[in-house]
Amino acid sequence: MIFNSAAFVVFLVLIYAVYWMMSRKTARVQNIVLLVAGCWFYGVWDVRFLGLLIASGAADFFIAQQIEKSSAAKPKRWWMLLSLLINIGVLVYFKYLNFFAESFSDLMSLLGMQSGFVTETLILPLGISFYTFLKFGYILDVWRRQQKPETSPVNYFTFILFFPYMLSGPVERAGNMLPQLREKRTFSNPETSIALRIILWGYFKKVVIADRLAQVVDPVFSHSDSYSGSALAIGILLFHIQLYADFSGYSDIARGVAKLFGINIIDNFNRPFYATSLRKYWRQWHISVSTWFNQYVFSPLTIETRNWGSFGLYFSIVITFTTIGLWHGANWTFIIWGFLMGLLICGEQALPKKSKPGSAVSVVIVNLLIMYCLIWFKSDSIERAWRIQHTIFANWSGGIKIGSALSDVFVSTQFALVFFVALMVFLVGDAYSHKIIPSLSSKPKAVRWLGYYALIFLIAFLGVSMNAPAFVYFQF
Q1: Rounded to the nearest 5°, which phi and psi values hold at 161?
Q2: Cα(62)–Cα(432) distance, rounded to whole angstroms?
Q3: ω into residue 170 within 30 of 0, thus cis?
Q4: Nearest CA to 387 among 222, 234, 214, 219?
Q5: Cα separation of 38 and 161, whole Å?
Q6: Which residues contact 392 (CB under 8 A, 6 or more apart)?
C-alpha cells in the first residue's frame, strides 16, 4: 500500500474516522488504533515480514529493559552489542548478503580461484533500512542514558510501527515520538487544515513533478549510450529535481498524515537546493538520516581520531559518507557515490574561508557537485556510470536528443508549457513553503481556495495515475 494509491486513501479515511471516534478515550486506546493500522498497512504487503519486524522489535524492547536494569557498564555494553548484532544481522542478511558474496566471488575470480559461494534470491523487506535505524537508534539512546526505556509495549510498538514513516522515514527519534504517544491527542481544526495543506503539497511534488520527470529521466539512464553528452547532462539535472520532489513529497505526505492524528514528526528537508555549501546541503537534505549518522557514526569517529589532527577529521568524514552510501543500497555505485561525497566535503573543509565564492555562485557550485555525484547514485553499474561521465565530458555531438523523450511524455506543446509552469510553481513554492503553508490561515478565503484548486487542477491534469512509479526511496 503506497501513499499515491486509491487503497491508501480509503485506508487513511477509515483509520482517521475510527481514531477520532476514540478521541474521548485514553492515549492507550488511540495508540492501539494506530498500532493496528500500522500492522494492517505493513501486513498488506507481506505478513511474514510484519512478523520479522515485530520479532526484532520485541527483542529491542526486552534489551532496552535489560540495559536499564544493569548497574555496571560492561553488561550494558553487551546488551547494546546484542541489539547491534540482531539489527545489523537482519539488515545484512536481507540487503547485503548477495552483494558481499558476489563481490567476494568476483575478487576470487580475479585471483584465478573460485569462492564456492552460491547466492539465493531474497525479497528485500520494505522499509528495512529505515526501521532498523529507528529501532537501533532507540537502543543507543537508552544505552547512552539519553532516553528512558519505554515500559508500555503498546507505546513502543506504535512508535516502531507508525505507518506514516514506516517505509521511507523520516527516521524518527524516540525522544520526540514517545512523549507524544504517552499523552492523549485532541482534535484541532487549525492543525488539521495545516496537515491537509502539507499533504496536498506533497502529492503535487510526487505525482506531478517527480512522476512526470521519471518518465523522461528513466529512459535517458536506461539507454544512456543512445544520448549525447548534453542530453545526459539535462537528464542528470532533471533527476536531481525528480529525486528531491519524490522524496520530499513522500516526507511531506508522511508529516501531514502524522499531523492528522495529532502527532508531529521531523521535517526531513529544509530547502537543500539553496544550500551554499555541501555541509549545509547535508544539514538540509534527508535531515533525519544525516543527523542519525552524525550522532552515531561521525561523532564517535571524531572522538576516536581526535589525536590524528586534520587527517582524523577527513578520515571520519569519508568513512561516514561511504557508510551512508552503503546504507542506500547494495551496489558499488552507492558506495562510490558516498565516498565521492565525503572527498568533496573534505575538499570544501580544507578551502580557506576567504577563497569561498559568494552565496549565489556557491549555490550553483553545490548543485553541480551534487549532480555529478548523482551519476553514480542513479547508474545501475560502475561501467554505465563511467560511460555516462565520458559522454558528458567528452562527447557533446548529436544535439539534445532528450527532446524525443520529452515528446513521449508531453502529448502537446501546450501540455509541456503547463508542466513547466507547474515546475516553476514547485521550485518557487519549495523556496517559500516553510512560510506559505503556516501563513495561509491568515489569508482571505478566496486566496486560500484559489491556491488549493490550482494544485488540485495540476494534480488532476498532470499527475501520473496509471503505472505510477513507486517512491524512489522504497528501494532502500
Answers
A1: -115, 25
A2: 45
A3: yes
A4: 222
A5: 5
A6: 229, 232, 233, 236, 375
| CA pair distance 132, 129, nearest whole angstrom | 5
Predicted confidence (pLDDT) at residue 38 exceeds the cutoff of 90: yes
Say what the pLDDT of residue 113 is.
67
Long-range pairs, 344-348, Cβ under 8 A, ≥24: 344/278, 344/369, 344/373, 345/278, 345/279, 345/282, 345/317, 345/321, 346/314, 346/317, 346/318, 348/277, 348/278, 348/279
Contacts 24+ apart (CB under 8 A), 39-42: 39/161, 40/11, 41/1, 41/11, 41/163, 41/166, 42/126, 42/127, 42/161, 42/163, 42/166, 42/167
* 423 vs 136 pLDDT, higher one: 136
Rounded Cα–Cα distance for residues 128 and 110 (Å): 33
Residues 6+ apart with CB under 8 A from 349: 279, 313, 314, 317
Q: For residues 398-423, give the mean pLDDT.
A: 66
Q: What is the DSSP letter of 224?
A: G
> Which CA distances in Å does 321 have to 46, 80, 172, 277, 314?
32, 24, 20, 16, 11
CB of 402 closer than 8 Å to CB of 227:
yes
Contacts with 59 (C-beta within 8 Å, 6 or more apart), sequence order? 83, 86
The x, y and z cell numbers of residue 180, run together, are 507524544
Cell for 116? 564456492
User: Which grid coordinates belong to 304?
Assistant: 576516536
pLDDT of residue 3: 83
| Model confidence at 161: pLDDT above 70 | yes
**470 residue type, one letter:** A
Backbone φ and ψ of 189, nearest 5°:
-60, -45
pLDDT per position as a tens digit, 100-111? 777 777 666 776
One-letter-per-residue 3-state SS of 352-415:
CHHHCCCHHHHHHHHHHHHHHHHHHHHCCCHHHHHHHHHHHHHCCCCCCCHHHHHHHHCCCHHH
Closest CA to 454 of 474, 435, 436, 434: 436
CB 2, CB 126: distance < 8 Å: no
The cell numbers describing 393, all together, are: 565530458
Contact 190, 441 (CB under 8 A): yes
Give pLDDT tens digits for 282-313: 999 999 999 999 999 999 999 988 888 889 99
Q: Determine contact, residues 217/242, Cβ cutoff 8 Å.
A: yes
The grid coordinates of residue 54 equal 515485530
Look at residue 272 and tell me whether its pLDDT is greater than 70. yes
